[in-house]
Amino acid sequence: MFLSTAVFGCDFEQVSFSDALPMGRMGQCEQTADGRYQLTLEPENTSINPSPWYHFGVTSNQSDSIPVTLAVNGYLPRYLPKYSSDGIHWQSLPFDTADNKVMFDVPGVAGKMVYVAGQHPIGNQDYIEWQKALARTHNELEFIVLGKSKQGKDIHAFTRHQADNNEWLVVLGRQHPPEITGAQALLDFSEEILQESPLSHRFFNRFNVLWIPNINPDGVAAGNWRHTSEDQDLNRDWNKFTQVESRLVKEKLKAITDKGGKIVFSVDFHSTYYDVFYTMPEGYELAPKNLTSSWLKDLQDYTNGIFKVTIKPGSNPDNGVYKQFIADTYKVPAITYEVGDNTPREKVRYIATAAAKTLMTSMLSYAPEEYHYVE
Ligand SMILES: [Zn+2]
Fold first, then answer.
1. What distance in angstroms lies between residue 272's CA and the mean position of ligand 1's atoms?
2. In the chain, how many domains are there?
3. Same domain, 361 and 234
4. Partner of 26 at 20 to 30 A CA spacing, among 63, 259, 289, 314?
């Protein structure tokens, strides 16, 4: 009979755990009486999302698989475990659940760190590399820094604009760091818009685009879910502007409109349990009135049979959600583009690419004056 005394700490006799990684997070470690390694994670924001993010490295001095249990007080972690032996290539791990715990075996490689995460991590450096790659092939892009996050990290942005264009699409990402499928969709969506296709040429002949792909680098670095380094949910801050990150975006938009620019549409990328578009309700005081619905109808036609477009309209002026801020400030539509947590990689890319094409066509189908709300 084993004694049921748990041993705490992250360095055990044969196995050690570390979260000193980009987006690293693992909570408290212990070895339970049955020989499993149990990590107990704390959700940061139980009222909206009781699940915590996790990403950690495991090093073993043997090649046996390592039995790991993830526990979250009273909940199952929302993201299913994924494994990587090199931190680059990730695969799903078989798992089971019992008593609100997720259990899986991590394939061990003797003497070498292997990785486990809820989704394949996209860290701050990945955006810098992405922007560097874009800069090499797109000399029409202008790369800027909006300012510093609370912890002093650059908030990167970039634009593509022509001097006589004054209509702006705004693309925002990473308010909620672990929402990786949404982060991936932003990259795919943006790359489609930046393709040198006849459609994108027509689009850029008329519209400018502002990208803020990673608004919460402090949260990304820390492995936070919804929070900034000040424990605030950024997507509840667009009415109070208590956070420097949301203020920097607001100031950038104001600088654009102060110079005669007009914000005409915005897309904010996230992930949730399933693919869904959160829109402003039909009949809300916006112009063009039907841009969102006609775009999403075109997206449905484009993807019919492969993808089911699900739309959830909503309005809550006091909630501090980004799309509401855009709608109420500029009287134009904005959307929260939510990608399912488990939507497969190639499907994320296919939908985001189709969404970019159909959005460009839809935005072009309205005349400039139709973007002006008339009471
Ligand atoms: Zn989110």
1. 7
2. 2
3. yes
4. 63
